[in-house]
Amino acid sequence: MVKPRKIPMRMCVGCREMKPKKELLRVVRSPQGEVSLDPTGKKAGRGAYVCYSPDCLHRALKQRQLDRALETKLEEAANEQLTATMQRLLQTKEESL
Ligand SMILES: [Zn+2]
Predict the structure, then answer these.
(1) Is 0.85 surpassed by the pTM of this model?
(2) Could you give the C-alpha distances from 55 to 5, 42, 58, 63, 95, in angstroms and in order?
């Protein structure tokens, strides 16, 4: 028996497109209420997904989609931190290619 290959899909909270989960970046709100990016996808907490794109992250923050998805209220400082982390991740990604 061959199992049908099913790719888990998730929606980006920025552009609201469905994409394979592994192409998206997980954003997680920890049980302590701290919001961070989770490239491993393994952190505990409530998660949302966004493309590896500062544009999508920016849009998700600006339209408060991330707040809604994570049931929290992000402060300006948290927004800046997420954006900075995203940029760092993108840089690391490029270097590893
Ligand atoms: Zn997107």
Answers:
(1) yes
(2) 31, 24, 5, 12, 20
Superfamily of domain 10-96, CATH level 4: YlxR-like (3.30.1230.10)
What whole-number distance in Å separates Cα of residue 39 and Cα of residue 86? 10
The neighbourhood of ligand 1, an ion, using CB within 5 A, equals 12, 14-15, 51, 56
Cα separations in angstroms, 49 against 25, 53, 57, 71, 73: 6, 11, 9, 14, 17
pLDDT tens for 36-82 read 999 999 999 999 999 999 999 999 999 999 999 999 999 999 999 99
pLDDT tens digit string along 15-33? Answer: 999 999 999 999 999 999 9
Sequence ranges of the domains in the chain: 10-96
Find the 1 Cα to ligand 1 centroid distance in Å: 36
